[in-house]
Specification:
67% of the residues lie in helices and 9% in strands. The chain is an alpha+beta fold. The strands form two sheets. The protein has a five-stranded mixed β-sheet with strand order 2-4-5-7-6. A two-stranded antiparallel ribbon has the order 1-3.
């Protein structure tokens, strides 16, 4: 159920800040922020847009840009700056006279604080913000804000394991929209849940959301059919009354009545056909649901089977001549499969330890010194400081990247290992080389395992996928820097 939180939070973070926004012309500063390719650039432009809108008296647009800038501060780990900016926005709202829109504007600011506290896993602080939001939503007297409050209540309950309350709020939201016949909005919510569940590979989330969606869809179709029949009955009754009032001629009445009967027969036939199509659709969607469930179960069994095969092959492979290239490649492949399976299925927290960065980086670089080509320069740029990290995973990732750099860097080239402290809790290790680089069309696939059949003696293609999984286990990420064009640059981000 906790996965539902992340997808609801994602959808709200993208569109929630536009509550009560009027259709106005966007400023160039806001357009620059929306088109920026880096977080710092986007954040800077949003702050400038916020200040520009406020100076012009366009407080609604200014608050929206300001809260987006605060969200980008938080995303980059600069939480202190995020809270300071939100306090500044609240003060600006208090100093300006908005003509009764203060509650709606303060609601946007408070909602951003709520999302930050939920990200920090601070239930008490988040609950306080939620109470403030309830008061502001009531004071705003705006149905859109009231609906948005229901979304955020569901997020809060799901975030902290209060699934029963979350389900109740989510049901209240769906019932409220259904009662007002806003079927498309509820349908969109369910489809968003299913789509994001698929993207996050959460089979339980997809199955539960799909099941709820089918139940709701069946009930709504019944309501729509009843509405259509009621509308048709009313139309027939109105037509008959109109005929009686306008023409007392018996012949005319019969002609019109016969026409109405034909129309009713045609509509009844159309309803029958529609019911048949609807029934077939329901049967098809239920069949697809079973297919999805079966596919997810098969994937889980397949992963377990591969892991078991790898474990069973290892004793046999140990008896063979490990010096033979084919045997060694098969042994490495078996070991890599087991490692990848362990990383994907393990739920244990990684252990952090204090590490001296400069000495650590120099020791790692020293391990590839005898593997590089003639006149290749090795450079380490790391300060004398200590950080908390998992040495085993970080060493494995950096050594793999540096070994690859040693292979592809030509004579006279350069290999760098850099460390940068991006914030109090964000660290970066950067491995760069002046090799041939990785073609742009292949960059999206290098972290995907089992993408193609390869000669195992030339590598099994699992090295980078394993490194990617290790980075994710450490609450970080590993990716290629697309802006580096003089070779290849990998960036390992760590968040502690």
């Amino acid at each position: 159920m906790n996965k539902k939180v992340s997808i609801l939070l994602l959808s709200l973070s993208l569109c929630g800040a536009s509550i009560n926004a009027q259709e106005t012309q966007k400023s160039e500063l806001q357009k620059n922020a929306e088109s920026a390719t880096t977080i710092p650039a986007a954040r800077h432009s949003y702050i400038r847009a916020y200040e520009d809108y406020v100076s012009k008296g366009q407080l609604q647009q200014g608050v929206e840009c300001g809260t987006k800038a605060a969200a980008l501060y938080s995303k980059d780990g600069l939480h202190k700056e995020a809270f300071e900016l939100l306090r500044n926005i609240d003060q600006t709202i208090n100093n300006k006279k908005t003509g009764g829109n203060d509650a709606g504007l303060h609601y946007l600011v408070t909602k951003e604080r709520l999302q930050m506290y939920m990200k920090f896993r601070k239930p008490d602080s988040a609950k306080e913000q939620l109470k403030v939001m309830e008061a502001l939503a009531s004071a705003s007297n705006d149905d859109k804000i009231q609906n948005d409050l229901l979304y955020n209540k569901a997020i809060y309950f799901y975030s902290f394991g209060l699934n029963a309350q979350g389900d109740a709020v989510f049901k209240e939201m769906a019932n409220k929209l259904t009662a007002s016949k806003e079927y498309d909005k509820v349908d969109e919510v369910y489809k968003t849940l299913i789509a994001n569940g698929r993207k996050s590979n959460n089979a339980n989330m997809v199955a539960q959301s799909y099941s709820n969606y089918l139940v709701w869809k069946d009930s709504v179709n019944a309501l729509k059919t009843a509405d259509e029949i009621g509308a048709l009955k009313k139309q027939i009754a109105d037509n008959e009354a109109s005929i009686a009032e306008k023409d007392s001629s018996l012949t005319t009445r019969w002609v019109i009545i016969v026409g109405l009967l034909i129309l009713a027969g045609g509509l009844a036939a159309a309803l029958v056909v529609g019911a048949i199509i609807l029934l077939r659709f329901i049967l098809l969607t239920r069949k697809q649901k079973k297919t999805i469930q079966l596919a997810n179960d098969n994937n889980a069994l397949k992963a377990k089977f591969i892991s078991n095969i790898s474990a069973q092959l290892d004793p046999t492979l140990q008896k063979l001549d490990g010096k033979t290239p084919e045997v060694k490649a098969l042994m490495d492949f078996s070991k890599h499969i087991q490692t990848l399976s362990d990383l994907e299925n393990s739920t244990e927290e990684v252990v952090l330890e204090s590490t001296q960065i400069q000495q650590f980086c120099e020791d790692i670089m020293e391990q590839i010194r005898d593997k590089v080509k003639t006149d290749v320069t090795l450079k380490v740029n790391a300060p004398k400081m200590s950080i908390e990290m998992n040495k085993e995973y970080v060493s494995h990732i950096l050594l793999h990247l540096l070994n690859n750099a040693a292979i592809y860097t030509p004579e006279g080239g350069t290999i760098w290992l850099d460390y940068k402290k991006r914030s109090a809790h964000t660290h970066q290790f950067i491995v760069s080389d002046t090799g041939c680089g990785i073609p742009e069309e292949k960059r999206d696939d290098i972290f995907k395992p089992f993408l193609e059949i390869k000669d195992l003696t030339k590598g099994d293609g699992l090295g980078l996928p394993i490194c990617k999984q290790m980075a994710l286990k450490m609450n970080g990420d590993l990716d290629i820097d697309p802006e580096f064009t003089k070779g290849t640059r990998f960036v390992l981000d760590l968040h502690t």
